[in-house]
Design brief:
It contains 10 helices and 14 strands. It has helices at 38-48, 61-73, 113-126, 147-157, 168-176, 186-193, 200-211, 251-264, 269-284, 294-301, and strands at 2-6, 10-17, 30-35, 54-59, 77-82, 88-95, 101-104, 132-136, 161-165, 181-182, 217-221, 227-230, 235-239, 305-307. The strands form 2 sheets. The chain has a 10-stranded mixed β-sheet, sandwiched between helices. A 4-stranded mixed β-sheet has the order 3-2-6-7, covered by helices on one side. Helix 4 packs parallel to helix 5 (168-176), helix 8 packs antiparallel against helix 9 (269-284) and helix 9 (269-284) crosses helix 10. It is globular, with a radius of gyration of 19 Å. The termini are far apart. The protein binds adenosine-5'-triphosphate (ATP) and magnesium ion (MG). The site of adenosine-5'-triphosphate has 21 residues, from helix 8 and helix 9.
Length: 313
């Protein structure tokens, strides 16, 4: 069984206006709403690959209900903790030409100590050996930075496996609790290390630093350059074919889904890396934060190149 955890889900609302003019009333020509939240994205990408997961989250109010309905419509099972404040809405206002935009992100609802305790009780109820839990994204106000660290501790004690995809202080603390797999991108890894990563060699060193924490699998995603997947035994650089990326936002979540899918299928690590990159790249090629279909991912999979890391050629 796979569980995804989205502490701070979001409804993305995009308004298209003729032009962005300040201090004047304007009318929206087009309104688009997309359910967001990184763990929810992972559940959607898994669904597209034909794999079920249970999406867990803190949700609140009518916005939370809308997000839950969106998941149910896709056939995704949920286990949601209701909070008293409203789930956030992030707004993008973009001009019709697509040249300028304003993006306003909300912090998210305040989550109380009691609501956090309910979540942990729910996890303790459901956690079983061998399951995968994907812990994804930022934390809403009220949720302490050690949230993922505590969650990993609980899940490890039950024999469940964890995939961590977050940033900043929550990442730092969670790494000390030793997740099974960590999926930083380059800026997240650099922030954790405290210095920039400017070359493949420096990325290789960053991977070593994560492995030294005792983490079984490190997946350092490199945008258009693909993925470095490493364990103590093996190091793989999986590169996508040359494609046109339309919207790489959320590609990392699709990558996590591809890795999870292949790990559940118990495929060898080079194949795990290829599926991850194929799923990530399929998402990057699409408009909006959407995921590729199974057949799109499969055809990319066949064209993912595997290399040694760092490149010695
Ligand atoms: N421009 C691109 N061209 C081809 N593939 C891409 C591109 N950008 C991203 N990808 C694919 O998506 C994967 C994840 O991308 P990236 O490293 O940007 O993740 P991320 O920064 O965590 O993204 P997010 O957090 O927005 O989901 C890459 O490993 C690659 O397979
Ligand atoms: Mg990411």
């Amino acid at each position: 069984m796979i569980f995804t955890v989205t502490p701070n889900p979001v409804l993305d609302r995009t308004l298209t206006v003729p032009a962005i003019v300040l201090n004047e009333m304007t009318r929206a020509q087009k309104i688009r709403e997309d359910g967001g939240g990184k763990g929810f994205n992972v559940s959607r990408a898994l669904r597209a690959l034909g794999m079920q997961s249970v999406a867990t989250a803190f949700i609140g109010g009518a916005t939370g209900e809308k997000l839950a309905l969106g998941l149910h419509t896709l056939g995704i099972e949920t286990d949601l903790i209701e909070v008293s404040e409203e789930t956030r809405t992030n707004i993008v206002i973009t001009d019709a030409a697509g040249e300028q935009y304003l993006k306003v992100n909300e912090a998210g609802p305040y989550v109380s100590g009691t609501e956090i305790a309910s979540f942990f009780a729910r996890v303790a109820d459901r956690a079983q050996a061998g399951d995968f839990w994907a812990l994804c994204g930022s934390l809403p106000p009220g949720v302490p930075d050690d949230f993922y660290a505590r969650l990993i501790g609980l899940l490890r004690a039950r024999g469940a496996r964890t995939i961590l995809d977050t940033s900043g202080e929550p990442l730092k603390q969670a790494l000390n609790a030793v997740p099974t797999l960590v999926k930083p991108n380059i800026p997240e890894a650099a922030a954790w290390l405290g210095h920039p990563i400017r070359s493949p060699d420096e990325a290789a060193v960053a991977v070593d630093n994560f492995l030294e924490m005792g983490i079984t699998l490190v997946a350092l995603s490199l945008g258009a350059e693909g993925l470095l997947l490493a364990s103590e035994e093996i190091r793989i650089w999986a590169q996508p074919p040359d494609v046109t990326a339309r919207n790489p936002v959320g590609a990392g979540d699709a990558l996590v889904a591809g890795l999870l899918w292949a790990l559940m299928e118990e495929l060898p690590l080079p194949d795990v890396a290829r599926w991850g990159v194929a799923a990530g790249t399929a998402a990057a090629m699409r408009e909006g934060v959407s995921v590729g279909s199974r057949s799109e991912v499969e055809s990319l999979y066949r064209n993912v190149a595997l290399r040694r890391w760092p490149s010695t050629t």
